[in-house]
Amino acid sequence: IQQQVSIDETPNKLLYKKIECLIEKMQEETSGVPIKTVKSFMSKIPSVFTGTDLIQWVIRKIDVEDTCEALHFAHLVSSHGYIFPID
């Protein structure tokens, strides 16, 4: 007997839902990652946060074992296009 799997129940879809839930928590004004405006040489870049702030937030808010695990999570979120690094 072959079962039909809903598109909403695929492993990738479940992973993306979990990441999106965490992104929403990261964006919360009071308990999320601190957002700043950064001055560059000739411009200002709004709505940014530092990698350090993100890693500290992940360690505090998500029950991770160590900094390496938090860094892996941040890389995963970035590689899937939810956040973008700037120079």
Count of DSSP H/I helices:
3
Strand content: 5-15%
Cα-to-Cα separation, first versus last residue: 54 Å
What does the largest sheet look like? 2 strands, antiparallel
**What is the overall silhouette?**
globular
Write down the Rg: 16 Å
* Overall SS class: mainly alpha
Strand line-up in the sheet with most strands: 1-2
Order of helices and strands: HEEHH
Spans of at least 5 consecutive residues with low confidence? none
Description:
The chain is mostly helical and 87 residues long. The protein is 46% helix and 10% strand. It contains three helices and two strands. The chain has helices at residues 11-26, 51-61, 67-79; strands at residues 36-39, 44-48. Strands 1-2 form a two-stranded antiparallel sheet. Helix 2 (51-61) packs across helix 3. The longest helix has 16 residues, at 11-26. The termini are far apart. The mean pLDDT is 88.
What characteristics describe this protein?
single chain, 87 residues, mainly alpha, two-stranded antiparallel ribbon, 2 strands
Blueprint (SSEs and pairs):
Blueprint: H1 11-26, E1 36-39, E2 44-48, H2 51-61, H3 67-79
Helix pairs in contact: 2-3
Write a brief caption for the model.
The chain is mostly helical and about 90 residues long. The protein has 3 helices and 2 strands.
